[in-house]
Amino acid sequence: MDEIVIEAGRSGTQYWKDLWRYRELFYFLAWRDFLVRYKQTIIGIAWALVRPLLSMVVFTIVFGKIANLPSEGTAPYCILVYAAMLPWQFFSTALTESSNSLIANPNLVSKIYFPRLIVPVSAVITSFADFLISCAILVVMMGWYQFWPDWRLVSLPLFLALASGVAIGSGLWLCALNVKYRDFRYIVPFIVQFGLYVSPVGFSSSLVPDTWRLAYSLNPMVGVIDGFRWALLRGQAQLYWPGLLASVALTAMLCVSGIWYFRKVESSFADMI
Amino acid sequence: MSNWAISINNLGKRYRIRHETERPQYVALRDVIADRAKRLFRTPGSTRPTSEDFWALKNVSFEIKHGEMVGIIGRNGAGKSTLLKLLSRITEPTSGRIRLRGRVASLLEVGTGFHPELTGRENIFLNGAILGMTRAEIRQKFDEIVDFAEISNFLDTPVKRYSNGMYVRLAFAVAAHLEPEILLVDEVLAVGDAAFQRKCMGKMGQVAHQGRTILFVSHNMGAIETLTQRAVVLERGQVAFQGSTAEAIRTYVRLNSECVEVDVGSLARTGSERVRLRRVYAADEAGEPTNMVASGGPLKVVLEYDGDRDRACENVSFGISFHDAAGQTVAIHYTDYAGEPFAKLPVPGAVAFRLSELPLKTGRYYIGARVLVNGVEADWPRGNVGYFDVEVGDFYGNGRGFHSGIATFLLRGEWLVHEPSMSQREA
Q: How far apart are CA B22 and CA B282, in angstroms?
């Protein structure tokens, strides 16, 4: 029978074993959030489609028609926007939900034990489910314009992984910080709103002057969005390699440091929440 | 190699309490200005906080063997819930060490993780997963859980439509089917009606017999007495006693008795007042005033009196009565029932009635008192002149506490096999 020792400052390897033992909780918490979101609504899951669709329409009109910004090559502007909308909505929902996840479940933190890492990560998983549903619209749009992706599509899972990394890394940081400093509850919506215009969602990142391109890529979502566009737009979008590498490095750092910080303050969550 | 399941060594937990205290008044104008300027940068209503160390638990050490069922009792704030939180790994100790052998499941709250929008069925899976069961386990026990909770008709309605009783039954049903080696239970039986509580106690007893180690925190001395063999008494974060449950309860009672007395002098009364009652209180063996006595234990009722003349008095008869919480008179006893013990009594003075084994069940009893001199009423204060609470105790002397539930008196007698008489047999 395994023996568990509980002492100040020691949790170590036991934690990762527990994470494996409680792995089903990832599914259950994500499932719960997903179900609850659409209970007692009339159109139910269709909400997952309406949001990105409407945003795409607005952006196409504002940036494409009114501002008359150029698209990438021959790609229709709305597909350009939607290809960016998908990962962006995934990231913004994931960030918002995961940063609030612990605060919204105080009794899970104070009354029961399981590795707390599961909570923000399951919020990201729920957002991923929404993402998959929104992909349906992209398929419809591509059918409408007869603009199907080419071989580059196989790289999509990689960019998806990158997007998940950004979401999880920043989500963990904000989630942990939010428990102690409730200011972050107000900072997160601001980041998301600001980021929507700063990131190349409504426009193409090739519009950014070359001297600023690398600095621009410090926003990890730039790399993700560029990658998505490269994979989906049949070669009409160019990939800026230095920017992509910067994104990958940044994302890795974000994830590792996020996990480190979260673990560091985790033992005090129950006392602070 | 000892057979322990839980080993706690010098455990301590410290919390830092922040006080938002008022600053002292400033006299120097310079200080007042500086203070005002600093206040501009603070959020409204806050003043400089100070922090204080609060040790919720300190130097707690004890061991629990496999298969033991141990109660943790103590006043509110003694540190019981903190102890369970530490054992459940919800929070980290500040000092000391805990060693656990076996899978731990804790029941600190009923219905943790229940979401009101989800149906009963969905919540069973969710709650089960949160408590540590795998999906396969839950599916296997699903029918048992639904039977125990008696909600098979309502499985597919959202839990927010359940009555409180149904909610609590469902939550406990899931938790009751956990199969850990070590189970920590924190006062969850305090919710629910009597039928539900009986069911829960039954289930807990069953679980105990399966050889699991159980740590049970409760204020319900009856439950502690029935379910546990050993108990630990916590007082202000430290272990005040650990040992047999009956002794632990006595310690707890002793630590918590501050006597609340009625102001007898101010009560409306009748009588000649040749002898006047001044104080009436229940006391322990040593004569210390107390409000708590154990069933089966010794009880003294002390009557302090004075009189209108400071002169010894003859032919004084004292009477006391006990009334239960419903107002029924449970017992009356006068000094002359069993013969007259006092020839002459000094005035002022005090007398006491001593019972060596209180045959009353648990509950609160109110005391009435009356004095007669020469057969004429001297003093009869109306209403209750005092009260005492009877806690579970070892009336039958077999190491097990007893609480009969409804009946007031505990009888002492013997059971034997009865041989019918000759005439009955022939008939």
A: 44
Digit-coded pLDDT (tens) for B118-166:
899 999 999 998 888 888 999 999 999 998 888 889 999 999 899 888 8
Range of the domain at B281: 264-391
How would you classify the pairing of strands B376-381 and B386-391? Answer: unpaired
What ipTM was assigned to the predicted interfaces of this complex? 0.83
> pLDDT (tens digit, 9 = 90+) per residue, A142-152?
888 888 888 88
Mutation site for B-interface testing, chosen from A101, A108, A112 by largest number of B Cβ within 10 Å: A112
Which of B91, B108, B130 lies closest to A271 in CB terms? B91
What does the block give as tokens for B137? Answer: 């386990």
**C-beta atoms of A25 and B130 within 8 A:** yes
**Cα B174 to Cα A41: distance, rounded to the nearest angstrom:** 29
Q: For residue range B227-282, what is the model confidence (pLDDT) as tens digits?
A: 888 999 998 899 999 999 888 887 887 777 666 677 777 788 888 888 888 888 88
Domain map (residue ranges) of chain A: 13-272
Q: Are residues B24 and B73 in the same domain?
A: no
Tell whether B404 is covered by a domain.
Answer: no
3-state helix, strand, coil in chain B (%, to 5): 25, 35, 40
Give contacts of A 109-168 with B, CB under 8 A.
Answer: 109-114
Cα(B394)–Cα(B397) distance, integer angstroms: 5
**Token duo for residue B198:** 């009986």
Q: State how far residue A174 is from chain B, nearest Cα, in angstroms.
A: 21
3-state helix, strand, coil split of chain A in percent (to 5) is 75, 0, 20
Whether B45 is in a domain gets the answer yes
- Angle between helix axes B120-131 and A24-38 (nearest 10 degrees) is 150
